[in-house]
Structure formats: structure tokens, C-alpha cells
Amino acid sequence: MLVTVKPRDGVAVWRLLEFLSDRTPWHRSLWGVGVVLAMEELYEACVVSKQGHLSEAAIKRMAAALQKRVGTHPAFTEAEKHFLKAQVHQIPRADGPAHFGIRELSARISTDYLARWGRAAAAQEVSVENFSRSVAAHLLDAGFSGPYLYNLIRSKIDAPEAITLPDLCNALQAELAATPRREFEVLLAFAETPELPNGVPEGWLRGSSVTTWLEAHGYPTTNVRAPVAMILKVQARDDVGAASLARGEADRYAARALIATGKELRLLPNLWVRGASSPFPLKAASRGVGVKELFREDRVFSADASQSVDAALELLAHLDGSSPTAAIAGGWGAIEGLLADPSDRASAADNLATLVTCSFPRAELTALSYRAERQHPQACGEITAATTNRERARAVGKMIIEGRMPHMRGEVDQATVLRLGKLLGNPGPALQTIRDSIGESFHRLYRQRNLILHGGRLDSVALSASLRTVAKLAGAGMDRITHGWYVQQLRPMELVARANLSLALASREDPLSCVDLLEMN
User: Fold this and answer.
1) CA-CA distance, 138 to 255, in Å (whole number)?
2) Which of 90, 283, 334, 396 measures 20 to 30 Å from 62, CA to CA?
3) Three-class DSSP labels, 193-204
């Protein structure tokens, strides 16, 4: 049972759970990585820069973003903040004292990072967004899967024993220590024996041995028909994460088989993780890349599609379901093709971040309007009377500004009201903070693309985190580009120009202009 010592403790916990749910929409999702991974990423980038695969400008940007973040972080001591500032005062050189200093600080903070948040939560009322984003990102960066963490935290707050927010932080710190990465065995079964020049490899399971393995580990074997199967061994913290890693291995084998033999591997549709209670689907769930505008405007089968936008959408599709390396290469290709300045490819990251930021207020306000209408139909008559999402967003925004917003029953909706109240109170700085956060995620995608294509690096420390944070955002941005092209007749860069102007003019004098940041001024 969660005990809320401070008024917003419960909101912080439920916002944390929202970040761990795979059903969270893009405007409520987790956009960034944890601060420990950010330090590890900077340490790695210094080495890669020495090899010529990342520019000094990229390192400088990373260092500046990290220093800004740590400067206000309640889990760092003042001495630690000053130490990091000294290390990144100039661009850290690979194998130099500052370079190794970043690694030492990262290792120090990671040992008790969540316990530090527990002490901060006990001493003061922490920011809901800062707490929930930081803790969720740290746990996911550490290798836990979202479903595992969601169920774990729900079990803690639903248990009859009382638990406070600091207690929860300490319990999560203990879980990190008690659940290290360990080896999982995963059964990958074939519906048809693949072409193998030297026959089935030693160690593979054949015929009845496949069902024997499944039965020995508690799985039903009804309708399982596999002539051969292989046992994959992966390092993960939980069975959901193990299944995800096994999918990546299966994707790599499928790609190799296709280019080696010209034939696709025929695999059974499930993976079986030793120790899990049920099989996992072989096909990964969508990463959440959604361009709904194509459906809304009935453009899915349109014959007069824009060649540039259509080509970008085809590349973007890789971001939703392909292997990590193909997803990153294709995803960035889609973004760069539409939004990059020819002399500065990285500019595409900032341009797309601007479009996504301008989409954020209306997305948040519209979603909240429907939930408020369901919970408080009598108090939300002006929302019910609205005939468009734009009008709904303005109506609920006005209610928040005027202090007439009814109390929302769910803590995640209460968190949304808090966020929107801050944004509408002073839109300019709030939107810039959002843009900086989203922009860093897109710049991370660009860096990962360079590491893969130019450096041949398939094991970057931020590879998985980049996909986790950027997929939904990229879909939201491409949705706006598609709408701009087909409905507003605006080329992508024209839409970016409009977005830049809207952000520059956003002010507390006209807060409801946030609803129309991508519309005609």
C-alpha cells in the first residue's frame, strides 16, 4: 500500500508506471535516457571521436547537455556536480584524465542512484516529471524490461504492507543488486529445416528432442511441429528482456540466410524462454511509430503520393519493426531526407524536434479533454459542445488557465494537468525545455546511425535506448509532415519555418496559441 507522505508522491509513482507501460502515447512517453547512461555514452563517444566517426561538435553537444542536466539533479552532491563541470569544461580527449573521470563518476553514481533519489524524496517534494523520468530511464537503461518493472512496482504499491516513495526507491535499488544480468536459454524453433551445407549443427535439437525440451521446462507442446530447433543463450535481467534479445538474434540469422541462400527462414511464431510461464511471440510488438494522417486523409493507397514524403515513410517503416541496426539506419534516413540542411545533416534532428514540440500541446490537451469529459460530463459542457479536436483542446486549456479544471480521478491525469498548467502559465520556456529534450533524442539517433554506418559499431551502449526513446517521437513528427504536405500544402521545410516562428512568439500573454502552433498565424 502506497503511503503518500508528500502531496505529489502518488502522482510521481503513477507517472513512473506510465513510462513503463507499452500503451503510453507519444506525448506521455519517455523521451530520454538516464543520466548514468548519458555519462557512459559520452565516455564511449570520446573514443569513437578519436577514431573519426563522431565530430567534436557532437561531443560538445553531449557534454553541454549532460552538464546542464547534472547541474540541477538532486541525486548528485555539489562536489560531484563541480567535478563533472571540470571534466567537460573542454572537450574530453580519449584516454585522458577527464575522459576517465567521466567513467569514474558514472560508476560511482550508478552504485546507489535510486537510493539517492530515495534520500531526495525523503528530504523534499521532488518534481514529478524529473523523478519519474529519471527513475524509469535508469531502470530501463540497466536492462530491465518495461513489463517486468511495471508488474514489480504494482506489486509493491498494491501489497498490504505500507510503502513510501523513499521506500520504493530503496526497494528498486535492492532489485537492481539482486537481479543482475544472467544467462537465459531461449528455444528458437524452425517450421522447416534450413539449408545447411554441412547438415544440422551439433547441439541443435531434432524431432522429438524439441518437444522433450519444451515439456521439461513446463511448456505445452500442442500444435508445436518443429523438425529442428536451436537454443540461444542471451544475457538479460528478466525473461521479457531475454525474449527481446532472442528476437534480435533471430533477425540476424534471417538476414544472413536470405542473402546467403535467397530463401527466407521458416520459423515457428513463438519463442520459449527457459523459466518463463508462457511463450513469447517471435515477431516483436510495434515500437509505436504511428503516422495516422495517412489513414485520416485516405492516403494509404493514394496514387498521387509525394515521392519525397512517400520515400521517407517507407524508410520510417523500418523504425517500427526492423532489427535495431536497420531501424536506426532507415529511421534516420527518413528524417534526413526531408529535414536536413545539405551542409549540416544533424540539423534534421533539431528541425524534427521543433515539429514534434509544436504538436505536443494539442496532443496532450485533446487526450485530456476526452478523459475529463468521461469523468465529469456535467462540468465539461464546453468540451462536449466542441466539434473539432482544436476546439476541444482550447476548451480544456481555458479551463486549466482559469482554474476550473475538475479534479481528475487518475494520478496520471493529475500529472497531465500539472504539466499543462506549467506549460500554459509560461509557454515559451516550457516549450523550449521540451524541444531540447526531444532534440537530444533525435541527435542520439543520428549519432547511432553514424556509429553503425561509419564505425561498424553494433554494440553501442545507447543503441537500444535510442530506439526505445525515439520511435514514437519520429512517428509523431512524420505525422505532422504528412498533414502539412497533403492538407496544408506545405513542404517540410516550410512547416519547420512556421514551427520556428510559433515557438519564438509563444508567450504567457496568449497561452492558448499553443493549440495552433502549426496552423496559419
Assistant:
1) 32
2) 334
3) CCCCCCCCCCCC
**Could you report the per-residue pLDDT of 430-455, keeping only the tens digit for each?**
999 999 999 999 999 999 999 999 98
CA distance 409 to 395: 19
pLDDT tens profile 71-99: 999 999 999 999 999 999 999 999 999 99
**pLDDT for 521 beyond 60:** no
For 317, the grid coordinates are 517503416
pLDDT of residue 300: 64
| Integer CA distances (angstroms), 3 to 23, 118, 129, 155, 259, in order | 26, 14, 19, 14, 57
What confidence tens digit (pLDDT) does each residue in 308-338 have? 888 888 889 889 888 888 999 999 999 999 9
Check residues 342 and 266 and name the one with the higher pLDDT.
266
Q: Cα–Cα–Cα angle for 202, 207, 212, nearest 5°?
A: 95
pLDDT, one tens digit per residue, over 3-18 is 989 989 999 999 999 9
Contact predicate 158/14, CB 8 Å? no
Q: Are 347 and 339 in contact (CB under 8 A)?
A: yes
> What is the Cα–Cα distance from 178 to 156, expressed in whole angstroms?
16
Among 33, 25, 30, 31, residue whose Cα is nearest residue 362? 25
Kindly list the distances between the CA atom of residue 498 and the CA atoms of 208, 262, 355, in Å, as whole numbers in the listed order.
64, 48, 9
248-254: which pairs have CB atoms within 8 A and are 24 or more residues apart?
248/323, 248/324, 249/188, 250/188, 250/282, 251/322, 251/323, 252/323, 253/188
Instruction: Count Cα atoms within 13 angstroms, Cβ side, for 517.
Output: 28
**Grid coordinates of 467:** 530506439
* 346-to-46, 64, 65, 439 alpha-carbon distances in Å: 18, 16, 16, 10
Tell me the whole-structure pTM to 2 decimals.
0.94
- Whole-angstrom Cα distance, residue 34 to residue 144? 13
Backbone angles phi, psi at 329, to 5 degrees: -65, -45
Return the H-helix or E-strand segment holding 46.
helix 35-50
Residue 11: enclosing H or E segment and its boundaries?
Answer: helix 9-20
